[in-house]
Amino acid sequence: MATMGQPAASRGRTATPTLGKAMLNKYARAFFTRVLTPFAAFLIRRGVSPDTVTLLGTAGVIAGALVFYPRGEFFWGTIVITLFVFSDLVDGNMARQLGRTSRWGAFLDSTLDRVADGAIFGGFALWYAGHGDDNALCAVSIFCLASGQVVSYTKARGESIGLPVAVNGLVERAERLVISLVAAGLSGLHAFGVPGIQVLLPIALWIVAVGSLVTLIQRVVTVRRESAEAEQAAAADAADVAERADEARDSGARGSEAAK
Questions:
Q1: Does residue 159 contact residue 127 with C-beta atoms inside 8 Å?
Q2: Which of 88, 54, 176 is nearest to 124 (CA)?
Q3: Which residues bind Mg(2+) 2 (predicted)?
Q4: Residue pair 50/91 in contact by the 8 Å Cβ criterion
Q5: For 26-52, what is the mean pLDDT?
Q6: What does the angle CA 249 – CA 253 – CA 257 come to, to the nearest 5 degrees?
Q7: What is the dihedral of CA 90, 178, 72, 127, to 10 degrees?
Q8: pLDDT band, residue 26 (cuts 50/70/90)
Q9: Which long-range CB contacts under 8 A does 224-227 form with residues at least 24 apart?
């Protein structure tokens, strides 16, 4: 059932693309959903809430990013983050089993996703500001962090003022995370003797930075166009209402004269 003009699906934990959903395609998600359903049921029996799983999953991502990445341990940091990614699937599974899909669940997931994103790119920035010793890549990492937040904000703000923001963009959250985390994990293999592979992370960060900038511009342009179209439609509606009111007055006046 829809509420306030929104479909019910938009009010649940599956409303926004979480980190787990970003890293798993639909076939892998279906498989892991089946595998994780008994675990989700076990947590429910133990009295664990979906919100608790969401919070613990985010805490794990933050720990993986801010403990390992600033030390240059990209492989193990990515492994830890990937393990906690599955909390995105578990909490949604639990919510469905409990029948508790809600606006609050969607809001909490979306908010904590922004925190997790900040931790990941913040971890990269700390590495390059410290032992990585590369101010340019530190700046690129910070730009990836900030632009990712702003890209998400533009869509949310546009929708909050009644615009559809009907554009996907070149590099959205799923692409930012998959590109960055895969590159980080592979770059970490340099510590195990794989030569030259560490260049993948800098390349990925530049790709994400440029793609995020393009996406931001796409969304701003879209909001500008949709805003102008909405204002034109509103002006046309107002003119139509005024014209109908004038016609009604004229009709009334003619009726009065005929009655005389």
A1: no
A2: 176
A3: 88, 109, 113
A4: yes
A5: 84
A6: 170
A7: -110
A8: low
A9: 226/158, 226/163, 226/164, 226/165, 226/166, 227/161, 227/163
User: Does residue 134 have an active-site annotation?
Assistant: no
Residue positions forming the annotated binding site for a CDP-1,2-diacyl-sn-glycerol? 51-54, 92, 96, 102
Phi, psi of 6 (to 5 degrees): -110, 140
Q: Are the C-beta atoms of residues 110 and 116 closer than 8 Å to each other?
A: no
How many whole angstroms separate alpha carbon 207 and alpha carbon 173? 13
Cβ-contact 180, 120 below 8 angstroms: yes
Region for 134 from its dihedrals, namely left if φ exceeds 0, alpha if ψ lies in -120 to 50, beta otherwise: beta
pLDDT tens-digit profile of 121-178?
999 999 999 999 999 999 999 999 999 999 999 999 999 999 999 988 888 888 899 9
Predicted structure pTM score: 0.81
Structure tokens at 29: 């998600």
The annotation places the binding site at: 51-54, 88, 91-92, 96, 102, 109, 113
H helices present in 24-134, as ranges? 26-45, 50-63, 74-85, 87-98, 103-129
Could you tell me if residue 171 is left (phi over 0), alpha (psi between -120 and 50 degrees) or otherwise beta? beta
Query: Which residue among 113, 133, 240, 246 is the active-site one?
Result: 113
In the beta sheet, which residues pair with residue 6?
Answer: 3
Q: Which residues fall in the annotated binding site for Mg(2+)?
A: 88, 91, 109, 113
Q: Of the ranges 9-13, 64-68, 208-212, which one carries the lowest mean pLDDT score?
A: 9-13
